[in-house]
């Protein structure tokens, strides 16, 4: 029941109002696989350059991530430089050095081709399709994307979306993809593209999950300290997919619990730079925060015929 | 167990991407009292001018709102002109004609002075304090404000906040009042000013409620059609206070249910211009949407010792 993730392993240089990190460990596949590793076995397909230190490889290995799909190429590792203001919802990209990632053509090792759970992190939708074609009978496929692909390769992206089960994007991307300001209408249009479950991330406002027959709203955990939102989306996806793969329960109830576990993981991740918080995270903390989400959102229902009690006495 | 509300009864001229309304019925006390009237008896203190039509008075009377505190003065009624773009979270004020509202000095009729529930809608905090001094032993006092008072009369506002039980403001106002970008820290600072319960409205993202010992997050109802957000905050407050006054239950559980009823009322209000949707709203719809909020937010808890299930198999 393990997960295969295809995405980036990278260096990030990040500036927030609370500090900065230079050449710290980052990348969508890194955040995803570290987060998912708390729930299930993960195999990773990505590329790094000659400058990628053994220390980071050892960390991923310590999380039991299968790295047979991590290739090392001549040249430098993908490096993203970004900055956040006090509005931590929006990153400002300062520099993007694709380096070895520029010629990345994901080749799925034979041992991974029967993966049951597949996460296509944010890469060129044409590459996402190549990956899909190499994986035999995945039970659940989820994918992410970004504004750059929505504007530069909308048709390729739509072909991917029509083939996956779960599409995970942020609010602005949902509006951009559909040209629809109303988020519910945008969601309906995206479901009409052929995806079964649509998850819309709203940063500090939480997550909405849409299917043909239901909508689920989960808040983000209200935190007093948010140091670095980098990787929150991939950490969310890792917790979400990790829980699904662990339980095998893809019913509406199972998907909702997975959303909360994803939100739990993301809430920890933003508490420190890079993957520092995930590195010192334990199972008990994950459980405790899941329960905090429960008490954060719980309210009593109303009995039938409560209507009488609504009217003025 | 009725409620007394002090605020504005006004004309609004509104433009949204979906249409426009000229000189339609508006005002904080109007929205509040109409919404609360679905739950309890409401008495209103406000002022209108000679131009205020009998038709609007008759509507409020039809909702059983006690209008002995509605005074009619020489001059014109308060008139607000505003505009919304596709981002319906933010109104742009085009014109504000205070008219008779400029010299409004709320005088609470004797018959209202023993009100148990009091809502101080968004007016000059010095006037809010005058109202507080005229009401004898209210059980629950809630108040609203706006950015204008936060910048022009911060000290007067803080004196009011220290005297009320429940403070209802929006996200930007919470940040403005405290100079604190992090909303949880801002909330703690506002609780330290002496208020017991702080409700932070986040527009289409819902509501957070803070007390010393708990946090509650409620989403807004995801709507396909949002025509006019005007009055959503006061409609929320009306449903919230109305439910509290109806049940008398101001426990944490009662406050949470009240938050959902407030959110239900606000979700209806934005579906049409002015108070048009509230005018045709029925109890059964209110109950149904409350239940929709329940299914929108519900997820299963986890059993003790679930941690084992989290670890990779």
From TrEMBL, chains A, B:
The keyword Kinase applies. One of its GO terms (molecular function) is ribokinase activity. One of its GO terms (cellular component) is cytosol. InterPro entries: Carboh/pur_kinase_PfkB_CS, PfkB_dom, Ribokinase-like. It comes from the Bacteria. Keywords: Kinase, Transferase. The keyword Transferase applies. Signal peptide: none annotated. Residues 21-274 form the Carbohydrate kinase PfkB domain. This is Adenosine kinase. It comes from Geobacter sulfurreducens (strain ATCC 51573 / DSM 12127 / PCA).
